## 1
Amino acid sequence: MTSLVRFAPSPTGYLHIGNARPALFNWLFARRHGGRFLLRYDDTDIARSKPEYADAIAEDLAWLGIVPDLVIRQSERLSIYDAAAERLRAAGRLYPCYETADELDRRRKRQLARGLPPIYDRAALKLTEEQKAAFEAEGRKPHWRFLLEARDVTWDDLVRGASHVDCASLSDPVLVREDGSYLYTLPSVVDDIETGVTHVIRGEDHVTNTAVQAQIFEALGAALPVFGHHNLLTTASGEGLSKRLGHLSLRGLRDSGVEPLAVAALAVLVGTSDAVRPVASLDELAGLVELAHVSRAPAKFDEHELEALSARTLHQMPYERVAERLTEAGIPGGEPFWQAVRGNLTKLDEAKIWWQVVQGKVTPVIADRDFARRAAELLPAEPFDATTWKSWTQGVAAATGAKGKALFMPLRQALTGLDHGPELAALLPLIGRDKALKRLAGESA
Ligand code: GLU
């Protein structure tokens, strides 16, 4: 059976690096196991869900390299949830409750004051038909709770191994609000059943949900998918990542020029025993991620580590993976150019500087005119190749007696106008003899 995984964000904000993790864990799992990936918008909260966030999520996933095989929206599937809720009502597993939020709050406080766990006391189960009718006559509308069985739910977690939650310690969850709208819990199960999701991989903040949802799967007569709960990401100082951390949003990272492959690699390898290393593709990354090796401790996200990994990712990036982006950025450099400069980049955008150096105008820096003139006289005839630099500088050294920095720095400053940069052996053939001669003569060329 082919596996089907899903990523189920609520479109109530932009994705950040923390919630890109379940997207990536699922996507990489599908890639590795030849499965399919479903993007499901959990948008039953009409007030907070926005179409522009849904579009932004798809765009941000595409930036990471994730293109879903199918996309569904919960807001378009309400009748399916209504049917499932009806089945649960008929089976006596979904019951109406009339307490207001205030009443529930007071009850919780009383329980806590008496040293009791603040679990819903199921008072609504004891309501007579007359009492319910009286509430309705008062204008109250019921919300609906799922009747949990007071037992241990167990599963073999892809990350955490043998897992269990004692449902006797949980309140019966509200599945349907007073206004008839659905909370996350039921639609998620119904969709997982209807779409045939085989593996539910999500953050460990959902472990308790899994126990509750396992009971709903069973109440609806469906087999359980396999579950996996990965650790959560925190900031370097250990705080949870919030949607408000704009610069850690995927769009913030994209705008800052960070490589998407580096974001993906750090997101799934951070805190694992595999050192975080640059990868050449998501497929390579898929081969490195072992859910069973994901740490149980929170993973700390370090922006400097991301920047460093992003640079290392560029340093080893093959030309064919970057060609299109270079063209889009107005750098029609070609492979020799890319090979020459990639090792010097921290951001792809910096390639522009080097494209300017090889093809645009440079204002040369000439400290010693005689030296530059001697060097120009010794510049070999074209064609230039990777050996030209070496033979030329050997000739210049022999003629002038300059060596080391005193030899190379004036040549670099004359040819590039800068005192740092990629290997000149690689740049010189790209600059060409004509420009090199002009620059050595102190002309802007
Ligand atoms: N919408 C839920 C969330 O974003 C989905 C959780 C799940 O994967 O089931 O937390």
Note: The CA atoms of residues 46 and 75 lie 8 Å apart.
## 2
Amino acid sequence: MQNLAIFASGAGSNADNILHYFEKSSTIRVNLVVCNVPNAGVIEIAKKNCVPCIVIDKITFVSPEQMLSILKQYQIDRIVLAGFLWLIPSYLITSFRNNIVNIHPSLLPKYGGKGMYGMNVHKAVAENKEEITGITIHLVDEIYDNGRILFQKTIDVDAKDTPEEIAHKVHQLEYAYFPEVIEEWCQYGLV
Ligand code: GAR
């Protein structure tokens, strides 16, 4: 059995989808949700799915002793970032090298980096009249949106699409592919 922790900061619709996907898995289990925003939607989602959720502050997050002891307590093997907006500190990257994955709502390296998250990405895509956008699932290293890319999928953007419509299309891709990519990454590691 491999134990996952999902880190999330927002509504948690990806977390919800991942929790459902692995609900009956005999090889992969989501043991913990970690959230850094005290009233984020993902907290209710964890509760609804009967998965423990810990809300952390910055002091806890940057403390190797505290965070590593929480992750050890829940026997976490791998970490999934699903809309988590803090940069991952280097002690966590070192302790979980190649074992942290992130989803980004654009075709990296386009529209990545600090400040590029959620609707900011979709607004920039619309403003720049991009004809395609999509999702990127990648390993996490010390730099925002920089690690090795495991998977990308594109969708067309219509000239009349609003940022909200682009966000909706991108979310559908995330729901369709993120759990499967996580599953393969857990099963086969890096190939
Ligand atoms: C998702 O679209 C995810 O790709 C994005 O935040 C959203 C979270 O939605 N992540 C980033 O922008 C990371 N840079 P959710 O809370 O409903 O899953």
Note: The pocket of glycinamide ribonucleotide is lined by residues 8, 10-14, 82-83, 103-105, 117-118, 121, 171, 174 (CB under 6 Å).
